[in-house]
Amino acid sequence: MGPAHPRLVLLAAVALLFAGFLPQALGRGKGGAPANPLVAGVCSKTPFPDVCTSTAGRHASKYKVIDNLAVLNMQVEAFSKRVAQARKHVAKSARTIPPAQSQALTFCDTMYMNTQDTIGAAQRAITFKDTGTAKIMLQLAVQDFESCDRPFIQANAPNPMGKFDKELNQMANNCMTLANMV
C-alpha cells in the first residue's frame, strides 16, 4: 500500500497543473469561453495582448465583423466597465480603511468618475472615426486614473486601488495602440 501513495500525489499534482494551464493552452479566457482568433490576432499587436484578448474578447459576439475598429470598440467598452468596477471597489474599500486613506479614496473616486466621462467622449469620437480625438480622450483618461496614486504616495500609505490602476493602465495603452491601427 505504501508505493501507491506517491503515485496518487503525482496524479493529483498533474491534475492540478492541467486544470490551471490547459484552459490557457486552449486559448480560453477567464470566462472559459474560447478566445476569438480574429480578436486574438488584432490584440497580438497591442502592448498587452493577453489583457486585450481576455477583456475585449468578451464582447466579440456583439460584432458581425471583427476588425481593428471593432476590437478598439470592444477594448474601450471593457475599459469602461473596469473603471466602473474600480469605482465600486472604492466605495467598498472606503468603509474599512483609516480616514486619511478614505480621503485619498474619495479623490480616486473623483478621478475614476472623470475617467468615465473621458471614456464616453472617446467612444463618441470612435463612432465618428475621429481617432485623433479618441486618442486625446484616452490619454486624458490615463492621466485621471493615474492621479489616484498621488494622495497615497503623499500620505506614505498603500494604495488599495493599485491592482485596478495597473489593469486600467494596460487597457488604456491597448486602446491607444488600437486607435493608431484604425
TrEMBL record:
Domain Pectinesterase inhibitor intervals: 34-178
Family classification: Belongs to the PMEI family.
Stated name of the protein: Pectinesterase inhibitor domain-containing protein
Statement: the UniProt record of this protein carries the keyword Signal: yes
Transmembrane segments: none
The entry's keywords: Disulfide bond, Signal
Organism: Urochloa decumbens
Coiled-coil zones: none
Signal peptide bounds: 1-27
Pfam families reported in the protein's UniProt record: PMEI (PF04043)
